[in-house]
Structure prediction request, 436 residues.
Amino acid sequence: MNFPESATASTRKVIVGSTVGTTLEWYDFFLYGLAASLVFNRIFFPSFDPIVGTMLSFGSFAIAFVARPIGATVFGHLGDRLGRKRTLVHTLFLMGAATLGIGLLPTYDSIGVLAPVLLTALRFLQGISLGGEWAGAILMSSEHAGARRRGLAASWPQMGAPAGNLLAAGVMGLMLAIMPQQAFDAWGWRVPFLLSAALVLVGLWLRISVAESPAFREVEEPVKAPVLSVVREHPVRLLLAAGVRIGPDVSYYIWTLFIFTYAAQLEDVPRQLAVSALLVGSALQLVLVPLCGHLSDRFGRRRLYLVGGVGTALWGFAFFALLDTQQPVMVFIAAIGGLFFHAVMYGPQAALISELFPTAVRYSGVALGSQLSGIAGAAFAPLIAVALLETFENAFAVAVYVGACSALTVVAALLMPETTKTTLRETPASQEDLAQ
Prediction:
């Protein structure tokens, strides 16, 4: 890892802990999405037509996004009242328990309709956990960093998404590669979920061992109701925080999840090819996300965001055109291009949103603002994409959908202030952060 030059040993430890913990959270979260694309329609919704089963499977996937604002409210309150560190320990433990439960869950053939009900309930708990996770992880990194390196420092936890996706796709892809379909459907899909239990223990140890955010420690008296306070005092900034996330959120789930559903309609694009393309794109994001975070420190957050938003809107049309060629090289270019433009926005995103709110309500503002976009955008992105494909029998409408969501993000970015030089600490002594 190439940490910010000014980072102390304590800051480096915080960045590592935040990044590893967030990676595990996203690993658990993405496993469900991959399983929803690959197997859940058959083992939890077997009595439905395949396309309807897929939509129901993605519907249970969307439940987590409905839960995420609840998690943002609960953990945002705790994060502003009790601290970032303690709250993050709780989010990781909850995610690990829910994921382990999914791995042990009986299928429809064993317990009937109770199986999809329990599956949906566990997915709901995953959503509550992730609703509070992202805000706390990026705040731990950004509030430990000086203003001149904050974009880079805050971008490291952002790598939890591509790293978690890479890990999930790699483990799931390995299971697909080494066993026949029947064995995978019977028990192979459970292995990646069960592995999560061991990984979560590592993440919990790292999080318990780091220091609390210095910005939070400087708050003399926590706000009694931080969620209500941020809604009343910063409603426009909440909407802008949600707006800048809609485009990258929707496009990401199209690039990384809907690709499997669309590839299934194409005779010469096997699932393993789609998994491989996703692995390569996610690996490149591990470099691109911190690079774009660093560039945002030099050129400003909004400028990069606008480039990524416009690029994503246009790439939606190229993405499906490339997949339609059914050529392996073109499939790889489709996935890599989509994830490239996502990284251009995702790198500066953490610092951009965290700089919108004052310290006393920052956890609540960041968590709630970011998760509102989940309901408005990402929650139903795969489901909407499947419905559009079924209705129009081609992917042009899906590309228009991605473009419209990206346009909303571009508008939100244009309305936001440039906050690159803002300090996140409010005591006189903390003004030295601006020089770091």
User: Anything to note?
Assistant: Residues 1-7, 427-436 have pLDDT under 50 and may be disordered. The chain is about 80% helix and 0% strand.
